[in-house]
Design goal:
9-stranded mixed sheet; 218 residues; binds zinc ion; 9 strands; alpha+beta; 30% helix; single chain
Length: 218
C-alpha cells in the first residue's frame, strides 16, 4: 500500500531557514533541493529524503507571499499553542477546483477560493476542526510576461504577452531601463528587502532571459 501512495508535503514555519536547512541536511539526513530568493539570504527552502519533501519557510516571507492572509498570522505566531500553528500540509489533487467544490459543499472551513500562484500551482487552503491547515493543490500552467517573467493574471491568458507594469498607456512595451527599474523596486527591494545593487544585478540577469530582451544588446 505504501508503495502505491504519493507522499504529502509539509511546510514548517521556522525562525531561521539557513539553520533549519543545516539541521535537516547534516543531522536528519535530508538533501537540499531548492532555495528562495536567489543569493545566500534564504527565506524558503525545500529539502527531501527519499522523494519526500519538507519545506522550511521564514515567517515574514510566508506572511507576505502566501495566498491566504491567515497563513501569515499562523506563520507569525508559531507560539500560539494552537494545534497546527506554523504548519501547512500540502496535498496534491488531480482537480483542485473540483476538490474545492467538494470540500466547501461538505461544510469544510475553506479559507479562500482556489488561486493560481507564481510558483506554478493552483491552490486553496482549508482548516480542519482542530486547527491544522491543509493546502490542496494541482500543478498549473502559468502565463508569464515576456518582458519581466512575472505572472500574468488569469484573465489575460487570452493572448496578452506583457504585464501591466511593462507597458505604457497605449499597451506598448516600455524601454528596458524603465522595466528594469520597476522590477528592481517591486520584486527585489520592496518585496525581498534586498539591497539595490544586488537587486539590480539579479533583475538584469532575469530580464535578459526573457523573450522580449534576449535578442537585444544593452
Ligand atoms: Zn512584465
Amino acid at each position: 500500500v505504501l508503495e502505491e501512495n504519493h507522499p504529502i508535503s509539509v511546510l514548517l514555519t521556522v525562525p531561521d531557514v539557513r539553520a533549519a536547512v543545516e539541521h535537516y541536511t547534516r543531522v536528519l539526513g535530508f538533501e537540499l533541493d531548492q532555495t528562495f530568493p536567489p543569493g545566500s539570504d534564504w527565506r524558503w527552502a525545500s529539502v527531501s529524503l527519499d522523494r519526500q519533501t519538507v519545506m522550511l519557510g521564514a515567517p515574514d516571507l510566508l506572511a507576505e507571499r502566501c495566498p491566504e492572509p491567515a497563513m501569515g498570522e499562523i506563520a507569525l505566531d508559531p507560539r500560539s499553542a494552537r494545534p497546527g500553528a506554523g504548519v501547512t500540509i500540502y496535498v496534491q489533487v488531480p482537480d483542485v477546483d473540483g476538490h474545492h467544490r467538494r470540500v466547501a459543499g461538505a461544510g469544510g472551513a475553506v479559507l479562500h477560493d482556489p488561486s493560481t500562484e507564481f510558483y506554478g500551482i493552483r491552490v486553496f487552503h482549508a482548516r480542519d476542526p482542530f486547527g491544522y491547515t491543509l493546502a490542496f493543490y494541482s500543478p498549473a500552467e502559468i502565463a508569464r510576461c515576456e518582458s519581466c517573467g512575472g505572472t500574468l493574471p488569469d484573465e489575460s491568458a487570452d493572448g496578452a504577452s506583457f504585464c501591466e507594469r511593462c507597458v505604457d498607456d497605449d499597451g506598448n512595451l516600455r524601454p528596458f531601463d524603465r522595466v528594469l527599474e520597476a522590477v528592481v523596486e517591486s520584486d527585489y527591494v520592496s518585496l525581498l528587502k534586498m539591497d539595490r545593487s544586488r537587486a539590480r544585478r539579479l533583475a538584469e540577469e532575469r530580464l535578459r532571459r526573457q523573450p522580449a530582451w534576449s535578442q537585444v544588446a544593452h
